[in-house]
Amino acid sequence: MGWYVRSLGKRKIIEFVVLLVFVFFFLGPLLNLVLLAFSGKWQYPAMLPQVWSLEWWSFVMTKEEVLSSISLSFGIATIVTMASILICIPAAYAFARIRFPLSRWFLFSFLLTNAFPKMGLYVSIAVLFYQVGLMNTLLGIVLIHIVNTLMFMTWIPAAAFKSVHQAQEESARDAGAGPFRVFWHITLPMALPGILVASIFTFLSSLDEAQGTFMVGIPDFKTMPLVMYSIVEDYPSTAGAVFSIIMTLPTIILLLAARRFVNADVMSSGFQMK
């Protein structure tokens, strides 16, 4: 064993240690969350729960407020994703294919919604919504969620459209295909991985959004993150751990389902100003 460690060299040993610290930093809290969610009794200094239990799963899953918040959150996230696709994909295609003055500045402006503390922006939007009657409405919540997703749904698809070589589109046009047919059969399929990645991040961002929903939707619209706060405050940490896993599962499932599309190349190309 000693000769194998010495053969690796200092650099690989340091890289391995850094990797272990990195994995522990990210997976440690998740592992602790899973153990806590299934524990009936877990007291210090025990490394594992002394009693395993599903008591708090039953408690959380039978609360009507929790069930309604789950269906509401998934419904809003689906609406926001579909609306963002309809609004942002044509804009992303225009940024990628049409030259117009200040196009880079317009594209850069979508970063502003994520570049500053959001609460100030939400307060300004809430004042505007109050004047036009959008407070405590589903439309108001959808609009404030879309504000958060504009950057994902514009930058990443725009980079995906730019990566499609125009020579391929011109070849299809030379063969007699119309603009819509070229877009549908050539451009869109090749840009689809980038659009899919942006859609996943939009769905997850909407599912996790809390501040804007609290500002615009309370008291009638309580999504999962808002109910999560009340559960953490009013019940033991085990109930909070159960609800956290329920909130985390969609993220894990979606990322696993789309793992062939979600990679560093797609993400890095989406955040480059070309």
UniProtKB/TrEMBL annotation:
Q: Which GO terms describe its biological process?
A: transmembrane transport
Per UniProt, which keywords does this protein have? Cell inner membrane, Cell membrane, Membrane, Transmembrane, Transmembrane helix, Transport
ABC transmembrane type-1 domain span: 70-258
The compartments listed are:
Cell inner membrane; Cell membrane
Major location, coarse class? membrane
Record has Repeat as a keyword: no
One GO CC term on file = plasma membrane
Span-the-membrane segments of this chain are: 16-38, 66-93, 105-132, 138-161, 182-204, 238-258
How does the protein associate with the membrane?
Multi-pass membrane protein
**Pfam families from the UniProt entry:** BPD_transp_1
Among InterPro entries, the record links this protein to:
MetI-like, MetI-like_sf
Q: Which family does it belong to?
A: Belongs to the binding-protein-dependent transport system permease family.
Which PANTHER family does the entry link to? Answer: INNER MEMBRANE ABC TRANSPORTER PERMEASE PROTEIN YDCV (PTHR43357)
Name this protein carries in UniProt = Polyamine ABC transporter permease
Source organism of this protein record: Paenibacillus donghaensis
